[in-house]
Amino acid sequence: MKLILPVCCFALASHASAQQKLYACTELLVLYEIENYDTTPQALLLPAAFNVFGSYYDIGVRPGTGTILAMEAGLMGQAGYEYDPETGVTVAYETCLYTTTNSQYVSSIDSDHDGTFYGHRYVPSSATTVSLMSTDANPYCFTRFGPSVPVNNVGDVAFDRDGTLISTRDGSTLLDRIDPLTGGVTSFGDPGIAFAGLEIDTDGSLYGLTTTGALYRVDRSTFLPTLVLQLPGAPYTGLAFREPAGRLDPTLICTAQPNSTGLPATLRAEQLAGPAPGSIEFQARRLPPLGFGMLLVASSTVTSPLGSGVLCLGSGIQRASSAILSNTVGSTNYTVDLTAVPGYGVVMSGDQLYFQAWFRDSTPAGQATSNLTAALLVEFLY
Hints:
The protein is built from no helices and 31 strands. The strands form eight sheets. Strands 21, 24, 27, 28, 30 and 31 form a six-stranded antiparallel beta sheet that branches. Strands 3-2-1-20 form a four-stranded antiparallel beta sheet, with no helix packed on it. The chain has a four-stranded antiparallel beta sheet with strand order 4-5-6-7, with no helix packed on it. The protein has two domains: about 20-240, 6 Propeller (Neuraminidase); about 250-380, Sandwich (Immunoglobulin-like), CATH 2.60.40. The protein is an all-beta fold and about 375 residues long.
């Protein structure tokens, strides 16, 4: 992996030109690409990219590829479309939910950085409940988790940096926080504006899009909205960011064993803003909630059992962080200063290091053990 320091770390979007970009769509999938929205916002109407047979509920982005996913419900059932804004190529998929007999469809979609998609399933025949859905592989074949909740309590979803989901409420200005492990819902805040689309950028800034095309930035402390841009046309239904250029793309050297959550813990690296060498934030996800863990660093890789997991680090293992308690949804962020990496000092251009997080865990019988996340190789080129 080659590390290229970002010009700006404002949003989850970019093309090869390194411009920050966001995407918004209308119900009939008129698709706009928005750039420079932190300074002088400009919206570009993209050529027709999707079939316009039905109504579109939301758009999302597939991590890694940056392709745009759209969820449509038409007269013959729900279809999903994947559009590459770089090439203009669109691929169509049939979903696994909506048919003419069961009349249910996914009405929102977003993904975490590890590629797990989340959404809401809506059942028009009952018009009373929806279910939270998730999938690790095919974004159009979801698995239900968590309790069903009233229809007026759900809308679009956006993945937050702490591993939780933020959700709008249909017909309401209220926002909720959703635990992706349990499906539990708690109140988050009230910006005073009903949003049809919701997104959170890599710096944690919250954005909402109204059905009339007004894009707002929402202060997360006061929930006061600030108008960023007014888009033409209506009604708008979806909002999505893409990963910015300059974000890290480390090499995965080994995957993790399942822990007490039933899932393998993941690790992701993200370059923080600043001059080289700067800092890296490592994001550990799918950890046991409220458990201690720490980030490890080494100069080589081996594979050996450790606790209930597999250690993939070799010589020169050092603690790259202090012990940090995971939050209630099993997420932890570790920040590494590349001018003072424990045991290695200043990271120079051409250096490569291996990273993996260790954490406390328990066996199915309740006995104390430990486990590890996936491991990453990062090569530094300035």
